Amino acid sequence: MWCLLSSPHLLTCGLQLFSINAGMIMVGRFEVKFTPFYLLLACLVAPQLQAAEASDTQNNLAYAVAWKQTAAEHRALYYQGFNIARMRVEQALAAHTPGDRPLAIVSDVDETLLLANDYWGYLVNERRDFFDDAIWDVWVPENGFTASPGALEFLQFCAANGVEIFYVTNRDQGEATYELARQNLLSVGFPAVDEEHLTVLRETSNKETVQQGIGERYDVVVLLGDNLNDFSRRYYTTDVNERLALVAEDRNEFADRFILFPNPTDGHWIRAIFGDSEPPANDANRLRWQEAATRNAWPGP
């Protein structure tokens, strides 16, 4: 490590700059007397300070959250999904005859019908780079959700044409969980938000039992979700390759019975990497992100 007193007020150690003012030098957040000892200390800690500053500005979530917040493509994928869902419902309505089971659609809630962009933006501002369940539980009652692009129009179309709407979500904010979910949905104007049509699972993310029960009474035209587990429990695996293989097997279901929406910030795709849908924020898991991101990587020239 080299150090250079490049001016009476500026010390350069490697790529790190230290300011000198009235005989004092800033080492990290501390101001100490400019002496040979602290000059040596500044040179020794320079690499660590440089690394710390880089980590302060690098956030695993930032790229994905920026896309969700700003990309027109993100909105377009929602419009596309709901357009396809509407076409499928229109086809079902045209083919429906008296005596047939009534038609229905079944939808996930979070990141399918309701977007939590404010929550994700808060995490980035707070330098959090993993989902934080404690913050989520404080944020949910704030009712800061917005309807995903095209969601309200699609649900209104279903309601106007006698197609039953069922909301199935998994959340847990304690005893208030159901009422919070109901208020979140009502706040953006969604129809049919009542005990008959809203199911909130607190103890499990397995929606199959509820979906099967609905399917016994109704002809379910489409399932909507941002997570493969919203369609089938068989996707609930911690093996990345197995999930990829299952999607290939079910490829004809997508845009037919399964309508999938984009979610780059959370979901069971994360569970397949970490073994946990909400892995703790630590350096070991940050390294695992890096390994996942370089699963396929050009070795360079």
Describe this structure in words.
The protein has eleven helices and twelve strands. With 301 residues, it is an alpha/beta fold. It folds into two domains: 3-57, no CATH class; 72-292, Rossmann fold (3-Layer(aba) Sandwich). A five-stranded antiparallel sheet has the order 1-2-3-4-5, with helices on one face. The two termini are 29 Å apart.
What's the structural blueprint in terms of helices and strands?
Layout: E1 3-7, E2 10-13, E3 16-21, E4 24-27, E5 30-33, H1 36-57, H2 62-70, H3 72-95, E6 103-107, E7 114-115, H4 117-125, H5 133-139, E8 146-147, H6 151-160, E9 164-170, H7 177-187, E10 198-201, H8 208-217, E11 219-225, H9 240-249, E12 258-260, H10 268-274, H11 283-293
Parallel strand pairs: 6-9, 6-11, 9-10, 11-12
Antiparallel strand pairs: 1-2, 2-3, 3-4, 4-5, 7-8
Helix pairs in contact: 2-3, 2-4, 3-6
